[in-house]
Amino acid sequence: MALLEIREVMVRFGGVMAVGGVDLDVQAGETTGLIGPNGAGKTTLFNVISGMQDPTAGMVSVNGVDISHESPHRRAKRGLARTFQRLELFASLTVRDNVRVAAELASLTNIDATVNRLLEKVGVSHLADKTAGELPTGSARLVEIARALATGPQLLLLDEPASGLDESESDRLGTLLRELTEDGLGVLLVEHDMSLVMRVCDSIYVLDLGMIIAHGTPEHIQHDPQVLQAYLGAPS
Amino acid sequence: MQELLTFTIIGLSTGAIYAVVASGLVVTYTTSGIFNLAHGATGMLAAFTYWQLRFDWDLSAPLALFITLFILCPLFGLLTERIVMRGLQGTTEVVRLSVTVALFAFMIGLANTVWPSNGSREAFLKFFEGNTIHIGGINVSWHKLITFGCAVVVAIVLRLLLFRTRMGVAMRAVVDDRSLTELNGGRPNRVAMFAWALSAMLAGLAGILLAGEQQLNIEPLVLLVINAYAAAIIGGLKSLPRTFAGAAVLGLLDAYYLQFSDNSWFPQSFMGFGLSGIRASIPTIVLFVALLVRPQSRLRAGTVRFREENKVPSWNTAVLGAVSLIVVVVGISGMLTRSNTLFLLNGFTLAIVALSLVPLTGYAGQMSLAPLTFAGLGAVAMSKLPGDGNLLTLLAAITIVAIVGAAVALPAIRLSGIYLALSTAAFAVLVTKLIFNQRQTFMSGNISVPILDIPFIDINSPRGRLILSATAFSLLGLGVIALRRSRLGRRLIALKDSPVAAATLGMNLTQTKLAAFAISAGIAACAGALAGDKVSPQQYDFTQSLPIVLLAVVGGVGTVGGALFGGLLLGGNAVLANAVPSLKNITKIMPGLTGITLGRNPSGATSQISEKFRPLLNRWGIISFSALGGVGIWALDASRIISHWAFFIGGVFWFLAVMPNLIAIIDGTSQRRWWASAIALTGLAISLGVDWDQAVDSTGKRLLSLILLVAIFGVGTQRVAENAPRIHHSSPDLLGLDVALTPDELDNVERELGVTI
Fold first, then answer.
1. Owning domain of residue B417
2. pLDDT (0 to 100) of residue B570
3. Which 8-state DSSP code applies to residue B453?
4. Does residue A165 fall inside a structural domain?
5. Average pLDDT in chain B
6. Structural domains in chain A (count)
7. How many domains are there within chain B?
8. Torsion sign over Cα B233, B235, B236, B239
9. For an interface test with A, which of B491, B495, B504 has the most A Cβ atoms less than 10 Å from its Cβ?
10. Which part of the chain is the ABC transporter domain (chain A) (predicted)?
11. Residue span of the structural domain in which A50 resides
């Protein structure tokens, strides 16, 4: 049984089929990539998983428990955490308090130590007392990851975590992801930075026009003709 | 059957007026995202203007109509958009709504000033007064027919405008995607101006039609808008056809109720409560129901980021502030006359009500337009509960109102932003009409709230009550700051900053909002329960809540100091109005005028003021000098060299006009230093030297003199003393390109960028 199982999830906005029957698994201790051109339905799928969007049909389960109809905060209690493509930090709180709120919501003991450890882990300790709204995008993305980790998740959904990061920050993110999965965390990663995706992912799903068009290891995906066509257009 | 037809026609004509008003609301909301609470007030002003032209100056009806509806109304709409509303993009819903509250207060003040209600005036006649037409066996007045016709014409014109004209297409484009419209060469600002002008015309038309039916009175015309809210909400604040349908339903409900309630079988009371208030409440009840059946507001990522920012005071600062507030009030309360004591008491009561908005609106970002309703419930609970006002009674009253607060919020809490605000408004109106205006609640128009009974302390005097309310404010203020620094406080802020992130991190948004509402209702209940005097339902009316919300936001709704500032300003305003009748008209407009400036400073006044004092914190010499000055002024008073008034005016002048400028004076060039000191000293000498008790004959005039002194000499000192750094007014992208940077600016930029050489 996979950590996260998505079965035949479908989302329809009026006449538009945003996600059309997707099956997807994320295993604990692995990073699973979800790539695809803009408008493929990646963020919509994320919203379905985290409970911000009701699917028109289909099922989402975590550890075998169907969570399709649970509210976002219940899903968080089941070990789901996410970051956002457009940053959603608590802009008027300090960096430390951003992470602290999350730790408190998860009713952790020893909150101060956890917060400090996580800030250290993502490498933003020096920004701890800055107001989150003042951070540049790169640091803000890292703080969002620290905040998501503070809920003690089993599954982490990352929505384009590398956009806005420079090369060294992006490298650091790759290392961080590997460390996290070694600790047993399952990661679902939506990302446009292909070198990062190919480096860190154990398996990759390719979404186009709301459908999974390919699934496999990074090597497999890189040579899949359907994927090339979706990304580069049909050969003439 | 014939009777039914009659009432159907009456209902449709009432509905026609609602439809015209509501369509105006929808037009501005969709194009600029601002829900205009002052929409009804615009109609009211238009009705008065029309009356002035038509009946007082005897112009012909078509000419008067043309001038009012096609010249003055559009002009008013244009100016409103240009001057007041345009600065509001990127601010919170709270600020946007408060600005329309300010406009509302301003227009009521203006109407009261220009057309005072005392004295008789020419009657406002219907169109073709006295002429009726025979339809299906009944007589219908021409006015009703015209009203109905107007609604039809408005519907057709709006439809054509939106779908057949270039401007209409632009308007719909702005609704769909503002920035995309702009990128494609559309001009959203111009569209918004047009929309506001159109909306003002619709409000004006409705106001004139309604005044013909109901005579020319400010209040019913202004509250017309509440009835129209319901229609607009039924239309989802978007669909004009549904808005018109909603308006028709409202009008018909009203007319049929009128018809049925005349029958003998119709109940006159329910569980001992009279039902006479029901008819007037129908639109509000429909509004409430329409809001409650709205789909839950969806959690969406990527909403607007807010501009406000408030620093959290440290514990030391907070306790120091609370203690100094009590000390100052104890000190000056001995010098005040009885009436001034009562005014200050009123100011503190209002400050507590404003404080109730800090956790709810300031921290959690939830708007409530009903803070005074909870204060009223607190007063009722305090007077009805046994115990005759001891501490337990107070606690019980607070608890009960807090529970009520959470209970009424429960159904409304699924809503957000404007919908939540409107449902609190509906709640306030319903409580006033159905509960406060009942014999059982307020016997013979008022009840007396017992004075808080604290063992060993006698507070049975105005001075005692003043000190009590200042102490209550300080303690509650400390409580609110403690809340901000607590776990729940962080959650409230998280809820405001990003509901979607909070939810996905595991926060139960409903629970958190309920907590905020309960705390807020409890604090407001304190203000009512501590009234210690006779109170009447008018004091807790919905329309009285609006200025408090407004001034809390003006003061800075995110801070305790802002609540104090707002409450005292509102109280002080009443002092001015009562003491100087000639100023009465200015003071009526004042809250509105202050609020209208919000667009330029959304964080509120206190944050601005405290910014000025912040630099002082690191300069011990200057702090000691400031304190010394304060003590010196007090010593002059204690040794009877100067009067209490001179002490008060001199003290405030020292604090507001001298202290913030000390750094600039000391750091200035020698020439500037001398001039600035001379100006400051002149102001101080006047403040301390004038024999205020003799020279000026009323409290209001003395306060006015104080304001003038601070304004003239304080600002004068600042202007002269400051080697003000030049400020670029060009776009930030052009900084340093259009005009070279000064060395100071370069330093600043390098520091910000972290480039140190």
1. 315-613
2. 82
3. B
4. no
5. 82
6. 1
7. 3
8. negative
9. B504
10. 4-234
11. 1-70+190-236
